[in-house]
Design goal:
By secondary structure, this protein is mostly helical. 46% of the residues lie in helices and 6% in strands. The strands form 5 sheets. Strands 1-5 form a two-stranded antiparallel sheet. Strands 2-10 form a two-stranded antiparallel sheet. Helix 18 runs parallel beside helix 20. It starts with a helix and ends in a 10-residue tail after the last helix.
């Protein structure tokens, strides 16, 4: 049968070659009936919604929040360490990513630009649709601006001078970091103007859908972009809009921000939606989506405790010790410690096992620290080796808005006002009143205090190294020396290595690209 099929196919292609030699070139310029989707796709409201859904899907693959982006954001901080056997991962936290091996950082770069391309498709084609629902059009365009801003935020923040695509083209010239930030800010502004506060009450085919970008998410990231560019006045005003909206509040249980039990809660401005129930069971490693791809994350197995996951990421002892610096008003250790990591504490259980009993035969593990945030460790699962975590990744929490607002108050001369918003975060975990414990802090002392507060509130959430870089600690000899005492991985830091290299493939294919310094 195979032989007959081959002969039929060979005969067909021979006939095709003979017949095409007798026709004009114009006759060959025919529309492929199997490949006219671009011309016909952007026609209806539903088409536009599917287009924006595709833009979200770039958040779910290995290059972004399935695995790579959390690693890139976490591993350079002094809250994490890695002894991964995989060199590409091991070297991230040691500021030694290899230009000739773009694993992990190159996947992030590629996937973020895939997301930007998809957002640009929506922004280019959706306005041409004769929408039956004008408000839906605004929501879809607002989401496209938000997602383009989010992907570009990561590129500018992690790779510095990068292309800034705002339309569909073949080549995109490299821009300065200042130009990149300007576009990020413009996108989040446009998104904030178009997006609703919530989808709970909107009419239309997206009604009630959780996880879509909102006005609060756009304003939160807009404020963050201002903050990262040291425009504290605009950042302060923008964060105040989020606070005054009355939409967000801290959840009472800190750990509810890192499990699948209380997702899209009152504290969440934006999170990536993962689910064990949606789609197939295959992981989305990248490229063109397949029908059997699931919507699950590989973060849990990558960060998982020894024998329950790969243990490629672990908390530092510096983080563990700093949680003990200040007791709660009831004399207990800061409860965020136990929500963040596993360690040999009496009664500690993980995946239904007693910590001390499980690791008793291995003193190294018994006396080590393991990640608990974003782990499916409460007993419902035996381990993480199915690679299928359904826990949503919380990208922006209200606690972050409060502490960033406090930072803006301090930087604009209102250091006393910063106390109020810092205390809102401290109150949740029962820490003493800061204005009593440390009254009258100077602006410089308050900066250090905010650094401490953020260190304990956001470990393993991709914020710490962003803070270190934007605060200029790597260029401050005293601060850099201090970081080296906290995390031995800083011993191999070299100026310029706070950014990742531009992947060589983009250097080769995009004319005029210049590599980041020190690579």
């Amino acid at each position: 049968m195979k032989y007959k099929i081959f002969n039929y196919a060979a005969g067909f292609f021979t006939l095709a070659l003979i017949t095409t030699s007798c026709v004009s070139d114009d006759a060959l310029n025919q529309l492929d009936p199997n490949n006219d989707s671009v011309d016909k796709f952007w026609s209806t409201d539903q088409d536009a919604l599917e287009g924006i859904n595709a833009t979200y899907s770039s958040l779910l693959t290995d290059g972004t929040y399935m695995r790579s982006t959390p690693l890139l954001l976490d591993l350079k901080g002094d809250d994490t360490r890695s002894n991964s056997p995989w060199g590409a991962m091991y070297n991230v936290g040691r500021f030694n990513s290899n230009v000739t091996d773009a694993a992990i950082y190159g996947w992030c770069y590629e996937t973020c630009y895939q997301g930007i391309f998809r957002a640009n498709q929506v922004l280019t084609n959706a306005p041409k649709i004769n929408f039956t629902d004008a408000e839906l059009k605004n929501r879809i365009l607002g989401q496209a601006y938000f997602l383009r801003g989010l992907y570009l935020f990561h590129m500018v923040n992690m790779f510095k001078n990068v292309p800034v695509p705002t339309e569909i083209a073949v080549y995109y010239p490299q821009k300065t970091q200042e130009e990149g930030w300007a576009q990020v800010i413009a996108d989040f502004k446009a998104a904030a103007d178009l997006l609703p506060t919530t989808y709970a009450n909107v009419p239309g085919i997206d009604a009630g859908q959780k996880g879509r970008a909102t006005k609060g998410a756009a304003l939160g990231y807009l404020g963050k972009a201002y903050l990262f560019t040291k425009d504290f006045t605009n950042a302060k005003a923008t964060f105040k809009q989020v606070i005054d909206s009355g939409v967000y509040s801290l959840v009472s249980n800190y750990r509810d921000n890192f499990t699948d039990a209380n997702e899209n809660n009152s504290e969440s401005l934006f999170e990536v939606q993962f689910s064990r129930e949606a789609g197939g069971v295959a992981l989305g490693w990248g490229g063109i989506p397949a029908s059997n791809w699931g919507k699950t994350s590989a973060r849990a197995i990558t960060y998982g405790p020894r024998a329950f996951g790969w243990t490629d990421v672990q908390p530092t002892w510096t983080l563990f010790n700093e949680y003990h610096d200040e007791l709660t008003t009831s004399g207990a250790v800061d409860p965020r410690l136990d929500a963040t990591m596993f360690y040999n504490k009496p009664g500690t259980k993980l995946y239904g096992q007693d910590f001390a009993t499980f690791y008793a035969a291995n003193p190294g593990d018994l006396n080590d620290l393991f990640c608990r945030k974003y782990e499916n460790s409460d007993g419902a699962y035996a381990n993480e080796f199915d690679w299928r975590s359904g826990i949503n990744e919380r990208l922006l929490r209200y606690a972050d808005v409060l502490l960033m607002y406090a930072e803006c108050l301090n930087e604009t001369g209102d250091t006393p006002g910063a106390y109020t918003y810092i205390q809102m975060v401290r109150d949740r975990v029962g820490l003493p009143n800061l204005s009593t414990a440390k009254p009258g802090l100077s602006q410089a002392a308050m900066r250090d205090q905010i650094g401490h507060e953020r260190f304990l509130e956001f470990p393993l959430e991709g914020h710490r190294f962003d803070d270190i870089r934007r605060w200029g600690w790597l260029q401050d000899a005293a601060k850099l020396a201090w970081l080296k005492t906290r995390d031995v991985e800083y011993a191999s830091y070299a100026p310029g290595r706070e950014y990742f290299p531009i992947p060589q493939l983009d250097m080769d294919n995009n004319p005029g690209m210049v590599q980041n310094p020190s690579y």
